[in-house]
C-alpha cells in the first residue's frame, strides 16, 4: 500500500448547501482507476449523485487516465456505482423525491483496508442570503481570533 494518504475534498459543498445527513459509500471501480486515485489524480468538485433503478451513481467525477496504462485505460468522466446497503438506498430515494434536495460528494479517501470510499451528503441548496451570513460569520470569527492573538 502507498504511504501517502489520499484525501480529496469538495470544499464548495459546505458553502453551497445545507448538509443534512452523511453516508460513507464504496465505489465500484475498474481497471486503472484505483491507481490514479492513489496518485491523487481525481476531482469531485463538479460531481453529483443520482438515483437510478434502485442504485445510487456518482456522475461527473473526474479520474485522470493512468499515465502508465495502455489501451486498458478508463474513461475519465464515466458514471460510477456507489455501494450502499439497502436501508441507506431507501432513505436516499425518499429524500431525493422532494424537490430541491440533492446528493453531493464531500470527500474521497482510501480506508484502512485499502478500499476507496466516498462521503456523500443529503443536502439542500442555500439561498444567497444564507451564503452571505456564512461569510459574515467566518469574517467575524477571523477578527475575534486576531483580537485574541494580540
Short description:
The protein has 150 residues and is α+β, with helices and mostly antiparallel strands.
Supply the key terms.
alpha+beta; 7-stranded antiparallel beta sheet; about 150 residues; 9 strands; two-stranded antiparallel ribbon; Small Protein B, Chain: A
What would you note in describing this structure?
The protein is α+β, with helices and mostly antiparallel strands and 150 residues long. It has a single domain, classed as Small protein B (Small Protein B, Chain: A, Beta Barrel). The protein is 29% helix and 35% strand. It is built from 4 helices and 9 strands. It has helices at 13-16, 33-38, 86-96, 128-149; strands at residues 7-9, 17-27, 42-43, 48-52, 55-59, 62-63, 80-83, 101-110, 116-125. The protein has a 7-stranded antiparallel β-sheet with strand order 1-8-9-2-7-5-4. Strands 3-6 form a two-stranded antiparallel sheet. 21% of the residues are buried.
Amino acid at each position: 500500500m502507498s504511504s501517502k494518504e489520499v484525501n480529496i475534498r469538495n470544499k464548495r459543498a459546505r458553502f453551497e448547501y445545507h448538509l443534512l445527513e452523511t453516508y460513507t459509500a464504496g465505489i465500484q471501480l475498474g481497471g486503472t482507476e484505483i491507481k490514479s486515485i492513489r496518485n491523487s489524480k481525481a476531482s469531485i468538485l463538479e460531481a453529483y449523485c443520482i438515483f437510478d433503478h434502485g442504485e445510487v451513481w456518482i456522475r461527473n467525477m473526474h479520474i485522470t487516465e493512468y499515465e502508465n496504462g495502455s489501451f486498458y485505460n478508463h474513461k475519465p468522466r464515466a458514471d460510477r456505482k456507489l455501494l450502499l446497503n439497502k436501508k441507506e438506498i431507501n432513505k436516499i430515494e425518499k429524500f431525493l423525491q422532494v424537490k430541491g434536495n440533492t446528493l453531493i460528494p464531500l470527500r474521497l479517501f482510501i480506508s484502512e483496508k485499502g478500499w476507496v470510499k466516498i462521503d456523500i451528503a443529503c443536502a439542500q441548496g442555500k439561498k444567497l442570503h444564507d451564503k452571505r451570513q456564512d461569510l459574515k460569520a467566518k469574517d467575524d470569527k477571523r477578527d475575534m481570533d486576531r483580537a485574541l492573538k494580540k
